[in-house]
Structure formats: C-alpha cells, structure tokens
Amino acid sequence: MAASTLATTFCVDSPRLFPSPHLHAVLKPGARVRLEPKGKPRILTQEKSLATTSATLSDPFVLQIAETLEDSVSSLSLSSPPTPPLKKLRDMSSESLLALSWPSRKDEPFRFTDISFIRSSHIQPITSPPQESDLLNVIVDTELAGLVIAHGYIVNSLSDLSALPDGVFVGSLSNLSSEVVMKKVLEVVSDGAFDSDLFWLLNGVGTPDLIVVYVPEGCRLDSPLYLRHCSVNVNKSKSNKLPMSNPRVLVFVEKGGEVGIIEEYLSGDKSKCYWTNSVLEVVIGEGGAVSHSYMQCQSMEAAHIKWTSVRQESGSTYKLVEVSSGGKLSRHNLHIQQVGPETSTELSTLHLSMSDQTQDLHSKVILDHPRGYSRQLHKCIVAHSQGQAVFDGNVRVNRLAQQTDAGQLTRSLLLAPRATVNVKPNLQIVADDVKCSHGAAISDLEEDQLFYFQARGIDIEMARRALIFSFGAEVIESIPHVPLREMTKTRITQLLNPAVAAPSS
Q1: What integer best gives the mean pLDDT of the chain?
Q2: pTM beyond 0.70
Q3: Which of 158, 274, 392, 393 could form an S-S bond across to 148 if both were Cys, CB 3.0 to 4.6 Å?
Q4: Half-sphere exposure of 323 (CA within 13 A, CB side)
C-alpha cells in the first residue's frame, strides 16, 4: 500500500518546544503547525515572537530576557490590545533583536563599561504601576504641567495637564484620538533610520506603553513639561533579582513649535536595586525648538541605561542640559541627526561619580547639511577610588555639510587616588569648508590654584569647595528653569561635600 501523501495540520494549545530534526522552535498558543509528508513539520501561522527560533540566537541570556519581556506585555494586551504604532514597535524590535548578543568588554562600545552585574542578575519585568501612596514621598510639588511616570506607566492621579494649550497632546498613545497624529507616530516608529543597540530594542519589546508629547504647528509652550520617572517598591541592594522597567516617550514638535522638556529620574530609596531601561525620541519640525533638561538621580545601586534619539529638520534648535549623579551603572546613549540646513544643536552635560559608580556618555552628532551648528561641553567629576567616568563623543561632518561650525570639549576632574576616566573625543570631517574644533583635559585640582586661595587667607577646604563647585557650575547654570536649577545646586552640593573635605592626595 502506498504511503499517504496527505498533510496534517494541528493547533498548539499551550507554549511548547517542538522536537524535530527539521524544526526546533518555541511555539506560542494559537500557532498552527503542518506536518508535511515524511513527517517534516512547517509552521503555518504564529504571532510574531522573539522566541521563534532559538537556534538563531547566539546568546541564551538575550533570549531569556526577550521571552520574559514578551510575556509581560502579552498579559497587558489581553486587557487592552496595543495601538498599531505600539504593535509595530514591538514587532520590529523583536525581529531586530534576534541577531544581537549581550555586549561584553570585547565590544568597542562597551570596552570601558562593565555591565556584567546585569547579566548575572535574574531580570524581572515590572508589570504594574505602584500604589499612589508609595509615590507621595518621592514626588515634590511643582507648579509645572506634566506627568508622573512610574516604571513606564502614567500615574494619572498625580499628573497635571490642565494648563496645556489647545492642540497639544500629552499622554498615553492609547488615549490619542487624532488619526493624523496617530499616523505620524506610526511613521516615526517605523523609521529605523539609525543604528540602535540591544538596549533600544529591549525597550521596544518590553515597553508597556508609548507616551506621546505632541506640539502642533506654530504652538509655543511658555512653561516646560515636567516628566518625572519614579522607581519605588523595588528590591534591596545585593539581591540577585533585578526588577526592570522600560519607559518610552516620543516628543513630536511640528513646524515652528516650541517646547521645554524636563526629564527627571527619581528613586524613593537610594539603596534599592533595579534596572531602568528608557528611551526618549524627539522629532523637531522645520524651525521648531526643544529645550531638554535631563536630571538622573536614581538609587546608587541601580542600573540606568538610557537612549535619547533626536531628529532635527531645517532651521530647528535642540538644547540639552544633563546632570547625572545616580546609579551604580549609568549610561546615556545620545544620538543627534541634523536632516536639514541651518540647524543648531547644543549639548551640555555634567556627570558625577561619587562612589563606586560608572557614569558613561556615548554621543553621536551627525551633520549632513550646510550651515549646521553644533556645540558640546562634557564635564565629569570622579571623587572615589573605585569610581569611573566614560566619554565617547563622535561628531561627524559629512560631505554636504559645508560651512558647518562644530565644537566639542570634554573636561574631567579626578579627586581620589585610582579614580578613572576614559575619554574618546572623535571629530570626523568629510566636508572641506568648515570651522571645527575639539579638546580634552583630565586633571586633579591644581596646586597653584589652591595656593592662590591660601595666599589670600582662604583655608584649604574652602578653596577646594570653590574650585570643585565652579567646575560644574558652567553646566548647572545653563539649566533654563530657575527652580530646577536651584534644586540641582542643592543636590550637587550635598553630594560634593564629602569630596570637599577629603584631600586629593
């Protein structure tokens, strides 16, 4: 009797690993598998999943995190299906993530940044916002309109959006009613125009929501929007469990629009251990302007990895002031692309490593059009013998970016024996009609400066205080919002007081 040539189709009713010499895949509920003649199986349909083919992944740890994140957002989708842009984001991130492995010190972008303690931890995605009562001791009252965001979830009861002008939208993408704006968000999400990394993609897979700030054409907000990210009810230090959150914000400013954004990361307990893996995307239309203040003061035991991606149309302006002092590991990936002429970018950053911390800034500014303007000032203070700062700054002036004016300066202050800083300023110029400069300096407090103060009757501690505070003041003074500037001064003063008292010998 001839062997049957009929194929058999069945549906998977629970997650399972399909064992076969022809197919090795983790199948989700609802997947349909067709058994071809001679028993060779073929997947007919399956919702896109990071776990489609485990054999294609070179790193099981990435697969493990990806599956955990997928499961966490799947539970959210049961109650409310994701919007098309959010679904697109998750699908694209899932597909791109399959080819990546966990970075190590052998990879150039992480040569000086040790992230092994994340890999050695048990990652647990945070699947729900905390109780309002848990946030009350973290939130400071402010008169500014804005959002309180806990682990990527908007806390509506503590947010205030009453003072927004007509046409401005700030909130969850699921509450966006305008189909025109929804389409623009989908276009931004679908654009994968630059080289991201593993952490950008993990955020895309695991973000519970996409928070949108939309400023219509010609609209100017007189007061900045305050986005306060809070981490509470997380694990104690030295715990092997590492709660993970993936907040994601998209700022879309139309032609001629102007907005100020204050982004602050807070923690209720400075000894808690958790991982914040956040993304901020900014799209600035022609002639638009965004002033961005980014304050990072999370737990000293936390991991804080952040991506900021900015796309600037012609004649637009983007200004960033960053002060980062929290986190056992803090890394900021900053990517700026000027996609039109006469575009202005100004970046001012201050990093402080006051304990056994790593403060890392990897920035890339790409100028592709004529008469672009770019200025970058990066300063860091390392005041602990096991503290470390990393700066990798790349400014690329491409062939068409004639008459560009670009400058980059990094300065580092080391206040303790064996304190470490690794700097890599990088200015790449392809155009031939430009004005470009860059510089780097690393030093302790200079003896002749201290002597100058002492010769005028000022004691050594006061002299050290004046020199250390003035080093960071250039960045702090550029914070545009006065109450935030004064609050930052107070916070930095408290952090630097031990360094002032300790001699740097």
Answers
A1: 85
A2: yes
A3: 158
A4: 25
